[in-house]
Amino acid sequence: MAIDTFVSVEEILAPGRGAQLRARIFGHTTILIGAGVVMFMLAVAVLAPWLAPDDPFAQDLSQRLLPPVWHERGSWTHVLGTDQLGRDYLSRLIYGSRISLVVGASAAAMSALIGTMLGVFGGYFGGRVDLIVGFIITTRLAMPVILVALAVAAFIGSSLEIVIAVLGLLLWDRFAVVTRSATMQVRSLDYIAAARAIGSSTSRIILTEILPNIANALVVVATLEMAQAILLEATLSFLGLGIPPPAPSWGLMIAEGKEYMFFSPWVITIPGATLFALVLAINLLGDGLRDITAPENR
Amino acid sequence: MLAYCIKRSVVALMVAVTVSIISFALLHLSGDLAQSLAGPSATAADVEQVRKAYGLDRPIVVQYADWIARAVRGDFGESFFLKVPVGELLADRLPITLTLGICALAFALALSLPLGVLAAVRPNSWLDRLALGLSVLGQALPSFWFALILIIIFGLKLRWLPVSGNATWEHFVLPAIALGYYATPAFMRLTRAGMLEVLASDYIRTARAKGLRPLTVLFKHALRNAIIPVVAVAAVQFGFMLGGSIVIESVFSLHGVGYLGWEAISRADFPVVQAIVLILACIYVLLTLLADMLNAVLDPRIRVH
Amino acid sequence: MSALLEVEQLDVRIPVIGGILHPVRAVSLSIRRGDMLCIVGESGCGKSLTSLALMNLLPARAQRSAQRLVFDGIDLLRLDERAMSDLRGNAMAMIFQEPMTSLNPCYTIGTQLTETLRRHRPVAQRAAREHAVELLEKVGITGAADRLSQYPHQLSGGLRQRVMIAMALMCDPKLLIADEPTTALDVTVQAQILHLLAALRRELDMAVMLITHDLGIVARVGTHAAVMYAGEIVETGTAAEVFARPAHPYTQGLLRCVPVPGRTKRRARLGSIPGLVPSLIGDPQGCAFRNRCSHAFADCASTRVTLAEISPGRSYRCLLSPERLAENALAAASAGA
Fold first, then answer.
1. Residue A39 — pLDDT band, cuts 50, 70, 90?
2. Is B26 in contact with A152 (Cβ distance < 8 A)?
3. Using CB atoms, which residue from C85, C105, C154 is nearest to B211?
4. Helix/strand/coil for C285
5. How far apart are CA C37 and CA C10, in angstroms?
6. What angle in degrees, to the nearest 10, is found between the helix axes of A145-156 and B270-298?
7. What is the pLDDT of residue A55?
8. Is C278 helix (H, G, I), strand (E, B) or coil?
9. What parts of chain C have a pLDDT lower than 70?
10. Which residues are CB-neighbours of C106 under 8 A, at least 6 positions away?
């Protein structure tokens, strides 16, 4: 028997790290639900062309405001009914998931980039740099986000790209705050001093030592900010200055349905419920990730 | 102590000014203001006339300097659309938004503080899990959708409350709920965490050893300490609520500052938008200063004697 | 004189992951008015939990049981929480180890003092404040009237502990339980606080239960001593008896560890007790001290050892008689010296 591999008694008796991690993940029902719903929405978005029964833009004014199938007047041709222009609601809902997910992910990625850069610089260099970063963060927090976003969208004209850009440029504050404090914690650890002692350059230290260690916090914030971005896009579209019609943005669908909501409440309850479900799922995922990667669970 | 206050105030001022610079730049650079004012059917000559009339042909730095110099004296110019001083418009609408904000904050605290305390007193009980569950749900709920649902249920089906306008106090109930619920999860979790920590502390053990009644220990001794961070966060959240009031005000047709901003944006009424951004930024920095002061008032250890 | 506090067979059990923790095992003791009973033992031997069990301030999942628990004629086992809280801070008072964190930082000293009195007596605020000033002076705090409006963070550790003592005295307690009151203080302040406690005991004819790990304190101020090991009382008696003629091997070991100025020779080996305290989970077989005892023999592992009375108030927990123990010690000394 080879004696070059040393196996301790503990490793034989206790479950391995992989098994422990798996046990924690599967024991955590909320993260499973969250991940499950998110994957489902992702699948729906990707497979939209095959799943949607109709063209989401096809209008048919003779079929306006048909109720969903569970209503007395509903039928299976339009499972979730139609909107005020006769467009199939289910198809619009399915294609709408693409908008939400794309905006959410892109805006979160963009704000992650901006916020992390600011946070790491402020946390790593400290002193004047940190003061400036702190000032920038406070300035951003003092700005009424929705108002500014609306104004920009109104004057430039709005589109998918502009909404993503505006959200990306406005939602980085939590990234900055979290990465800043995480960087400050990591910076004072011994292996950073060791890396400096052997002559590693600052950029190398940041990339190879600091970033991997704040990655956990970063991922958690990224999921939560993605949910935030999705909510904000829906709000902007609801106010008429987000994704322009006739795009099937869920927020826009709610805005368009507002006039008819007293008699046909499903025009707002259905897209709102799906929006709620998606945001909830992402939040559950983020919370679950935080519980798993939090130091006290290691 | 005085030096600290002055330093904080100067920074606050700088923040407010920076915000105004950024919004000024964004608004001016995001499109041709003169064009939007003149309207889609105007000719090039009309647009040039408009540009000159409103001083939009000057360099942007000059325009800003001019604006800020007047703004600090309270003169925000005149609304492009309504031809009345912006200051008047703001004075009219601000009380409504402030009322809405205060009601929303009151609602959030009234809901979250008891829940947080109860959850901390019985950790891991069904009540605790319910409170945490509600907080997770609350954070995912889109505010504008929630507002519409409230309107359908309470305004239409049950007919208990009015759903638009701001004539009576009842008009503020649904909007306050729709605006305030979003802050409830954060407050509740903060209260719960604070209470859990405080209840395990030595001075609570002393209070019990003195034979004080359970409610006295809970409220006079425990909550008094646990609530300190909550108050500071509440002040800042109030600022965010004011900024986010635009959505709720437009759904409920409350003629506050948010609604005014929304109208101004859709009409390219630039001076109004600029003034609102500045006012909201100033209120926010004032609130952060207030939060610091409240911390010092509530926690004797922070005061410098 | 009948005892103020009588405890018989007090047990505390706490369910934990590995089983049931049993940190207080069949503890019996009694205190009379004017006694200063010192409960001595190392960290983790269950002395603090014993005192918390008396006041019924144990953590939520802990279970207390006893054959008899009588204070001033009142059966504490039958009292509901409301009646018990009427006693706390009133006839039974307690002070703790960490004066730095035992006072609420958000209220003044005055508020915290007067609320104790007003909880248990119908007095007006002004009378309560006057009484507070009296007591602050009695515990040796100068400028007492001004102190009332100060906050805890403005006082030093020694001062805060004095305030705690004053707070405990607000309602003229018959029994004061002091859980390691001087451990967190400087040595000089320690002496002052102990001196204060001894003086108060004499002046007010108050019973004091002083919990400590420091034998020096027992020698200095104690009238009676009860030595605890692994959750059990292993020896009781007056302080003089326990110090002069310790009956239990653990007590003997403890005393050997303390160098006595004038008596301990230069380069003499300081005693130490080898081994570790046994786990308190589950119930032990035989004597808990046997693994560290130089007198241990076969029966120690299997027989349950009960407290044996040498004389009234003097007992110890060992299978061997005091004479046998003395013989063994002499034999060991002559063999090893």
1. very high
2. yes
3. C85
4. coil
5. 17
6. 160
7. 82
8. coil
9. 1, 336-337
10. B224, B225, B298, B299, B300
Return phi, psi of residue C98, to 5°. Answer: -105, 90
Q: Quick: pLDDT tens for A64-80.
A: 777 777 777 777 777 78
**Residue carrying the six token digits 């077989």:** C285
How many angstroms separate the CA of residue B206 from the nearest CA in chain C? Answer: 6
Q: Scanning the structure block, which residue is given the tokens 């009379």? A: C32
Nearest to C14 by CA among C310, C280, C307: C280
Dihedral of the CA atoms C178, C180, C185, C188 (nearest 10)? Answer: 80
Q: Whole-angstrom Cα distance, residue B42 to residue C25? A: 96
Which of B265, B279, B285 should we substitute to test contact with A (largest number of A Cβ atoms within 10 Å)? Answer: B265
Interchain proximity B144–A141, CB inside 8 Å: no
Lookup: tokens for C3: 């005892």
CB nearest C86 (choices: B211, B225, B301): B211
Q: Which of A141, A225, A274 should be substituted to probe chain B, the one whose Cβ sees the most B Cβ atoms within 10 Å?
A: A141
- Under an 8 A CB cutoff, do B284 and A146 touch? no
- Cβ partners under 8 Å of residue C124, min gap 6: none
Residue of B nearest to A228 (CA): B140
Residues near B132 by beta carbon (within 8 Å), at least 6 away in sequence: B119, B189
ipTM: 0.86
Residue type, B288: T
Among A115, A92, A120, A96, residue whose Cα is nearest residue A167:
A115
Judge whether B224 is closer than 8 Å to chain C, CB to CB: yes
Q: Look at strands C36-40 and C224-229 and give their pairing.
A: parallel
Q: What end-to-end distance do the CA atoms of chain A give, in Å? A: 33
Distance CA(A272)–CA(B144), nearest Å, equals 9
Give the nearest chain B residue to C168 (CA atoms): B210
Which of C55, C88, C102 lies closest to B203 in CB terms? C102
- Side-chain half-sphere exposure of B83, counting CA atoms within 13 A: 0
The pLDDT value given to residue A288: 82
Which residues of chain C have a CB within 8 Å of the CB of B213? Answer: 85, 119
- Give the H/E segment covering residue B19: helix B2-29
Q: What is the mean pLDDT of residues B249-271?
A: 86
φ/ψ of C7, rounded to 5, equals -120, 130
Does the pLDDT value for residue B145 go beyond 90? yes
Other CB atoms within a 10 A radius of the CB of residue B304 amount to 6
**Secondary structure string (H, E, C) spanning chain A:** CCCCCCCCHHHHHCCCHHHHHHHHHHHCHHHHHHHHHHHHHHHHHHCHHHHCCCCCCCCCHHHCCCCCCCCCCCECCECCCECCCCCEHHHHHHHHHHHHHHHHHHHHHHHHHHHHHHHHHHHHHCHHHHHHHHHHHHHHHHCCHHHHHHHHHHHHCCCHHHHHHHHHHHCCHHHHHHHHHHHHHHHCCHHHHHHHHCCCCHHHHHHHHHHHHHHHHHHHHHHHHHHHHHHHHHHHHHCCCCCCCCCCCHHHHHHHHHHHCCCCCHHHHHHHHHHHHHHHHHHHHHHHHHHHHCHHHC
| Phi, then psi, of B168 in degrees rounded to 5 | -115, 175
The tens digit of pLDDT for each residue in B217-248 reads 999 999 999 999 898 889 889 988 998 899 99
Computed on alpha carbons and rounded to an integer, the radius of gyration of chain A in Å comes to 24
Write out chain C residues lying below 8 Å of B301, CB-based.
Answer: 105, 151, 153
**Nearest CB to B247; choose among A235, A261, A275:** A235
Chain A residues in contact with B18 (beta carbon < 8 A): 135, 139
Backbone phi and psi for residue A143, each to the nearest 5 degrees, phi listed first: -85, 135
Distance CA A274, CA A39 (A): 14
The C-alpha atoms of residue C30 and residue C289 are separated, in whole angstroms, by 24
Residue of chain C minimizing CA distance to B198: C104
